[in-house]
Amino acid sequence: MGVRRFLLALVLAFAGLSGAHAAEPRRQVVIDDEGFALMHLMLLEDPRVEVLGITTVSGNVWANRATAMVLRGLELMGHEGVPVAEGATFPLLNSEARTERWEALYGKLVWKGAFMKQWAEPTAQSAPEHHGPFDPVDLPWGNPKLKPLPEAAALFLIRTVRAHPHGVTIVACGPLTNLALAQRLDPEFAGLVKELVIMGGSLAPRQALDNRSAADFAREFVNTPRREFNIRFDPEAASMTAHAPWPKVTIIPADPSTATQLVPALVVRLAKASRPPVAAMIRRMEPGFPMWDEIAAAVWLDPSLVTKSERLWYDFDVQFGPGYGDMLTWHDAYRPGLDEGRADVVISVDVPRMEALIARSLGER
């Protein structure tokens, strides 16, 4: 009788553990970005994650184009219920004219996003398409029927964070304009966020892969190791964000990205792991680019992927000189003490494990 009672208690204990695991709440996240990429697919498809919304911002493309890309992507994936709020069209102060003036003084930028008309020198990647900020959007994979919310991204961010205080992570993989605006509108906004994950900034990246397309991106940092596009597009917003009282900040600078690349074999693997509509989207992705945003999503999902990081105080240069938009960092003894931010800055990640995590988040078993 005693043995039977013990076995019954053991069975009930395991059943309780299973039930508790099944009832574990999903991690809540808002994605703030300037397009629709593999990172979005990862977080939308991962059963452990609840995407509360997606906010868009100008960066690689203008905000209206980014919004259309997100809406069409959600339609193709069957995630039409995820709210989308369009964000800032223009940086707080930077502009295309100011960027061209800066280049005349200090040299050509490798990537200018929505301001980009052509590469400064030949690359393995395709030439960018140039559009105006209010040009009509006509996507090659079809235009969306879904509509964005009738509110600005900054207001949506404030509303969502206040509805889930200390429960929402913001994964920001584009310029930080929306976050700066939200913080200025609501001084309590940053303090109510659970965690901020930023893909942006740069310390001292080095070429880690031996092929032409990887070298095209690594060369950007040879002479300008502290410059990275997301921050350079809107340095003032980045600095304002750095001075906000976030409870926790994780920064994915450019440094770990030079060891990653969306190669054709990985595209095949990820497409094979995915549902048919998601697989079709993955097959359309241009290979050859580093996996900037995917590192941010992967590290948030599994911090054990990080093989090297530093706890640093940080800010960004907003002086209109040669270092405009560069990342500034300090160890404890050297910080200026002007309310600069503090973050865990990721230097390197376990790339094979990261690729495996991406595949699992998309459905690989």
Structure characterization notes:
Helices cover 38% and strands 15% of the residues. It has helices at 2-22, 38-45, 63-77, 96-106, 153-163, 177-185, 189-192, 212-218, 229-233, 235-242, 264-273, 276-283, 292-301, 351-361, and strands at 27-33, 49-56, 84-86, 168-172, 195-199, 249-252, 306-316, 327-330, 341-349. Strands 3-2-1-4-5-6-9-7-8 form a nine-stranded mixed beta sheet, sandwiched between helices. Residues 3-21 have low confidence and may be disordered.
Question: How would you summarize this macromolecular structure in one to three sentences?
Answer:
With 365 residues, the chain is of the alpha/beta class. The chain is built from 14 helices and nine strands.
Beta percentage is 15-25%
Q: Helix coverage percent of residues?
A: 25-40%
Indicate the structural class: alpha/beta
- Rg computed from alpha carbons, rounded to a whole number of angstroms: 21 Å
The number of distinct helices, counting runs of at least 4 residues, comes to 14
Main beta sheet: strand number and arrangement?
Answer: 9 strands, mixed
End-to-end C-alpha gap: 42 Å
Q: How many runs of DSSP E, i.e. beta strands?
A: 9
Helix and strand succession?
Answer: HEHEHEHHEHHEHHHEHHHEEEH
The parts where pLDDT drops under 50 for at least 5 residues are 3-21
Mean pLDDT, to the nearest integer, reads: 93
Strand order of the largest sheet: 3-2-1-4-5-6-9-7-8
Shape: globular
